[in-house]
Every structure is written in C-alpha cells, then in structure tokens.
Specification:
Radius of gyration: 24 Å
Shape: globular
Helix content: 40-55%
Distance between the termini: 58 Å
CATH architecture of the largest domain: 2-Layer Sandwich
CATH class of the largest domain: Alpha Beta
Largest sheet: 16 strands, mixed
Number of helices: 19
Amino acid sequence: MHWIFDYITNSWVEWSLVILYWTTIIATIAVVVSENRNPVKSLAWVTVLLVVPMIGIVLYVVFGRNIQNKRIISRRNRRKLRRMGTPASASGSAQVAESTVSNIKLANSLGASPVYTGNALNIYDTGCDKFEALLEDIARAKQYIHIQYYIVADDHIGSRVMEALCERARAGVRVRMIYDHVGSFKLSRRSLRHLREAGVEVYPFFTVTFPTFGTRINWRNHRKIAIIDGEVGYIGGMNVADRYIDGGRLFSLWRDLHLRVKGPAVAALECSFAIDWNFMGHSLLDEKVESAPVEGSDIGIQLLTGGPTTQWMNITMMFQHLISTARKCVYVLTPYFIPTEGLLQALQIAALSRVDVRLLLPRRSDSDMLRWASSSYVRECLQAGIKVYFYEPGMLHSKAVIIDDDICSVGSANFDCRSFEHNFEANLLIYSRDFNARLKERFYAYLRDSTRIQPREWASRPLPEKALESFMRLFSPIL
C-alpha cells in the first residue's frame, strides 16, 4: 500500500509544480499584455516567454518591467522645489524666437520646466578643458557642492576630483555626491571611505545587490550634473574618467560635449539634483538658488529630464517634435544611433522634405554590439537622403541635436532606446542664435575629420557584416 501512497504523493507534487510553473508563465504574459505597450514589443516578450519560459521570466524581470508613472517625488515636495528654484527670470517664452514657442510649450508640459533667460554658456569638447574649469569652480566653493555622475573612476582625474571634494568638505562646505551604482561599479570602497571620512555625503543611485539585482539593474542614472553654490552649473556627456582626457586604452582621442552654465538656469540643475536626492530617501534639499542674470547674455534655457518613471517618453517626444518642425537643417551627433521607429521616420520625413539632415557617428566605438546595432539603421537613412558621416580620429561620444538657427539640445541622452526608455537623463534645450552658431562650428569641425558614407559603398559591404548588424538590431531595445 505504501507504493500507492508514494505514487499519489509524487504525482500530486509533480502536478502542483506543473500548475505553478504554467500559472507563473501565464501570469507574466498577462502582466505584459495588460501594460498596453507597443504591440510589437508585447508580442516579442510573449514569444520569448512561451518559447523559453524560465529564461524568458528572468529576462523580463531584468529588462522588460515597466516602472512608468512610478512617482519619483511627491507633488508636495515638487511644489516646494519649484517655489525655491523659479526666479523672476524664468518665464514661459520670454526673449526667444517665435519659431521656438511650440517647443517651449511641449517641454513645459513634459517636464514642468520654465525657460530661464539671461544665461551664459561655455562649451567644452575635451576633458582637459572641462575638468580644469570644474576643479577651479570646486576650489572656489563657499557654501555647497552638488555633483552627480554616471561613472566616477578610480583613476588620475577621478582622484583629483574626489580629493578636491574632500578638501572643500573639510573646509566646511556641504558636499553631496550621487554616483550610479552600475556605471561606477569599479569605484573602490577605499575611495568611498575616503570621501565619507572627509565629510562628503556620497550615495549610489539604485543600488544593485541581491535580491534586488534583477529589479534595478536595467534602470540607470545617466545624468552628469554639478552645481557649485547655486551660481555655476555643469551638464553634458562627460563622466569622471581619464578616457575623456587621453582617450583611454582603445582611442588616441575622445570627443564629448559638456556645458558650463552661469545664470538663472542653474536653478533647474539644482532642482533636478534635489529630486534625485529625495528619490534616494533623503530629506528635501532646502538650498534656494537665486543666480542673477548674466549681463550682456540673453541665452534662454530649459532643462528637460527623462527617465523610466515619467508618464511620457520626454526626450523622445521632444526630439521628434524638434525634427518635425525643422525647416532648414537637422544635425545629430551621437555615439550610438538606435532610434525609435517614430524618430527614424521623423528624420526620413525631414530629409525627404529637402531639410538638410546630417548624422555624425564614430567610425570606431567603445562598444562593438552598439556599433553593429547602430550600423543596421544606416541604409534606411541613406535611402531617404540623410547624410551619414563617420568620425575618424577617435571616439566621438558627443550628444547633441541642432535644429535650424534658433534651437539646439546638449546633454547626457544618447540617440538610442536605452536613453529614451530606461535611463534617467538630462538635456538642456538652448534658445539662442549665437550659441546655435557656436555649436554648428564645432559640428562642422568634426565633419572635416569625418568621412561621408555613400549609398553604393555601404550596400557593397560583405554579407556576414550585414547579417551581424541585423542580428544585433534585434537586441537594440535592451543594449
């Protein structure tokens, strides 16, 4: 009789596991479908879950979950920050060209960001110039320093920046620092201990440890922001690492864009930092920013932030609107070109409408997978008449979009799915003919060191190379 009992027990356990297994798969599929995403993406996840169920669940937990509309800061605290950081020089559309009003309204609707006028901007495209300026501003700090980077490396420039922060902290300056836990994974405990012992309040964004590994690793804080005493701010694409100065192990030259902001728009950078600081569980910052307009400068600035928690795909929508309203030119600088379907079509429509559309990418990349995925879009660009260039001297890591004569965008967001959907990003929208012309000069200088890709040349490449690019394109949403 015992064998009958054992058989029934074993059968019950086996059937229970089977039922649990398929209940988990079906429940996960139901979650995917209920999110009402793009049908193509939803179908792709459903297919993965059905074909390789257990692997599919792991992949979905890590790469597929949606935290859209998760509140990053309470409405009450957001209102407080707006009151503290909106000086009289902030307005809806003051001192900007009529052609940019719709862009301003869209950015305000997406990110509740006013236009700050009376600002001055310095452009840096080498790490040497940018870090020397940053270190000088840090050394002059009297009240506080807020600094936030995706990557902080334990190398020469990283040590210099961290030591400068420690020196100011010991002098009584309040220093707060946010670093991304994945981007700065190699930042040593020794360096962190040194910062904390000096009085620097340093914390990782979205700490990735078990068991929270799978629920956090896909969402990274990619912003690069610094604020010194509420008077000077920095924003752009450069992290804190030697590669931005010497090119690193792979390149002899590394180009990126970073901006030094002086004027009322520093309040917008402060607000962004304060929101991230509060999101990490800290009390709301109470530093009131009242940076006066810079005499003789009339640059209008809006800060547009984006991330996986926002209701809309902020930066995607803004880029799509900018491109669709262009009448003369659209210039895109990006290290990785993995556009959404809507952005690719917007660029194609602009080019087919005889707008001068130019795309500048690096010939060699710091990521082969991203380079292959980016290359898979080149043929569709060339077919529409988009001029595609490859930068030859080194790694072009710059991130900028230039539209006509009056507006441009510079910040941390790459022109790829990860920046649009998964990363926390920050870009400045800049309304100024003078600054637009200055940025175009940089763009033209890059073009002089670049090679334009011809359609016939691109089509004649080896078949295995094309096949590899097409294969990597399948993974573009999670690269």
